[in-house]
Description:
The structure holds two protein chains of two kinds.
Chain A: H1 7-15, H2 19-41, H3 45-60, H4 71-90, H5 122-135, H6 138-149, H7 154-161, H8 165-182
Chain B: H1 3-12, H2 18-30, H3 32-50, H4 60-67, H5 74-83, H6 92-115, E1 138-145, E2 152-156, E3 169-172, E4 175-182, E5 185-193, E6 197-199, E7 207-209, E8 215-221, H7 224-231
Antiparallel strand pairs in B: 1-4, 2-5, 3-4, 5-6, 5-8, 7-8
Amino acid sequence: MRIDADDAELVRASQNGDREAFGxxxxxxxxxIVSLTTRxxxxxxxxxxVAQETFVAAFKGLSRFQSDSKFSTWLYRIAVNKCxxxxxxxxxxxxxxxxxxxxxxxxxxxxxxxxxxWKIEQAQLAWELDKGIQALPHLYRESFVLRHIEGLxxxxxxxxxxxxxDTLKMRVYKARTLLCQSLGHLDGAVR
Amino acid sequence: MTASELLxxxxxxxxxxxxxxxxxxxxxxxxxxxxxxxxxxxQLLLDATRLPRPAVPDAFVARVMDRIEPDSSLWRKVAxxxxxxxxxxWNLATAGAAACMAVLAVWGILAGVSSQAPGPVPATxxxxxxxATAPSPVLVRLVVLQPGAKTVQxxxxxxxxxxxxxxxxxxxxxxxxxxxxLEPGRYEYMFVIDxxxxxxxxxxxxxxxxxxxxxxxxxxxxxxxxxxKATL
Lengths: 191, 232
């Protein structure tokens, strides 16, 4: 199997039992999936484990993959579902998966995030932003990560999450606003 | 979402028409609070795009492939079919045919040993494949994906851990390769990206602690004769 074969060729070969082809798919998509699971679950062993589970589930489900859809979209969908399962299993008491429909989610805890130096230090800023993303309610977080970290459009996000694009726009907007508040960008200006 | 929020959302997502955009910018000029809010949101999106991507853990691909159940692979199904016990009913004709095949097989093996013709032999490891043959050494091909790299080298037991002595060649967009003549044995190695960044081979079937808090990829090169038997 050629190393520069496109996803469709590699998927077809994998469906015919070519494990090397599937290894190339894993290698090609690992950065995106590891990024997604790390942003969703935090930089923990869980994130790598869930990323691995995503590819294992994809391999087992290859026969059901529809060749007219994008392999990356399909992988993202598996990864998002795996992250949701992991969060449910990890901390059921403080993960409200319905939080996006709850305005009270806007006042989640931010007391330990007041470090003004982040405006100067880029690394510190990244650390703060990462922490803020992980503090977002689950549904806001997955929408924000797919939109602004993975750079997906609302149509593809709608396919991955099975949610109408207008709802996703609202979730992304809320996530942006909450993040701005938590990072001190707005000084309480946004309501 | 209020009308004002909807307008900001559409502005950030670049969904406003040209006319709506002009009106919105005029509004920004008049409303200091709104202006600060939009600047903050735009800054946030910029920061988000600059977030460094988490690194893919060492040997991630190998660990995924290990977790894929062999029972689901085509090879496993073929192997199962070959090794599944079957009842055979013998008669004089089938016994005679089996005896002829046994005689032919023994003759074939003896003829093969006497000629010792070399042939292509794959090496072990997911990135290594023998591409030519000789009694010794074995030609081993290393491949790594590094789309953004300017140079890729390899350092290992086979070149005194000197990356300058072995450079990989870019064969297609992002794919780098080198073919090495190696004596059968066990080698540890790492790739060196742009002369600075040392990475483990993501395809490596095995890793070994290097004693300095990192890990090296391990390449097992088996003798041609042994590999040939394994592939029969």
